[in-house]
Write a structure and sequence with these properties.
single chain, 248 residues, mainly alpha, Ferritin, 8 helices
Length: 248
């Protein structure tokens, strides 16, 4: 089932409301520290869900095949999906921190540092009730590629940059931290591209300008098993060069 597309104004309003949930315990100058990581986390999880459904359809319902790493732009480990954190009732900040670090660890060459270094476990500033409200707020919208295309997400990101700057009487450029730049245009196209579209176009990856280069390159994962008979006619899928042209 195709998710309904989100209008730009709707997404902008929803993201700004997320910042307003933080107002009070969190200073306006720090909104970006918490809103952007949640935006990235939700986006990665929703795109991962889309890719799972795509792989499942390609394999005629073969769940074993659909779970193979080659089917995904980014890997999400056990208990690291958005829905895993959403199900947590207490120590929500700890669950958020663990999930985001798990995603970074599973994707060291592509997502190192994307979630920043905010402290999510400070319950004086971020009590469980506030974090649950924030997570439920983000959960009300689908940030997959079908619902939130790259250009819409990129424009919404830039809208937040301006709003954050206005709220703190700063210049918008001061809010473009390296991980946050991944959402700006034209790099929004690369961050938001799905597995099926990430090799289209000539968008250069923005990551080499800020990621650590000392991370050792992992060997390629093993090829998935042949598809079931009666499934799609093509053979074993080729593994695209990760981050060759576009980003989730």
């Amino acid at each position: 089932m195709t998710a309904p597309a989100i209008a730009l104004s709707q997404l902008e309003s929803h993201l700004w409301e997320a910042a307003n949930i933080l107002r009070g315990p969190v200073d306006a100058a720090d909104f970006k520290t918490y809103v952007f990581p949640l935006l990235f986390f939700k986006r990665i999880s929703d795109v991962h869900d889309e890719e799972y459904q795509t792989a499942l359809a390609e394999a005629d319902g073969d769940e074993e095949y659909a779970r193979f790493p080659q089917n995904y732009r980014f890997q999400i480990g056990d208990d690291c999906h958005w829905n895993d954190v959403r199900a947590v009732a207490s120590n929500v900040g700890q669950a958020l921190q663990r999930a985001k670090r798990g995603i970074e660890k599973a994707n060291p060459e592509t997502l190192y540092g994307i979630f920043g270094d905010a402290s999510w476990t400070n319950k004086d500033r971020l009590p469980d009730s506030l974090l649950r409200d924030l997570i439920e707020h983000f959960s009300r919208i689908n940030l997959g590629n079908q619902a939130a295309q790259a250009d819409i997400l990129g424009q919404s990101y830039e809208y937040l940059i301006k709003k954050f700057a206005d709220a703190t009487n700063k210049k918008a450029g001061e809010f473009y931290t390296p991980p946050a730049r991944l959402m700006s245009k034209p790099s929004a196209t690369s961050f938001c591209a799905s597995r099926s579209s990430r090799n289209v176009g000539n968008v250069a990856s923005p990551l080499p300008t800020w990621r650590k280069t000392s991370t050792p390159r992992k060997s390629a994962p093993p090829s998935p098993p042949p598809r079931k008979s009666g499934g799609p006619s093509s053979g074993t899928p080729t593994t695209p060069s990760r981050f060759s042209k576009t980003f989730p």
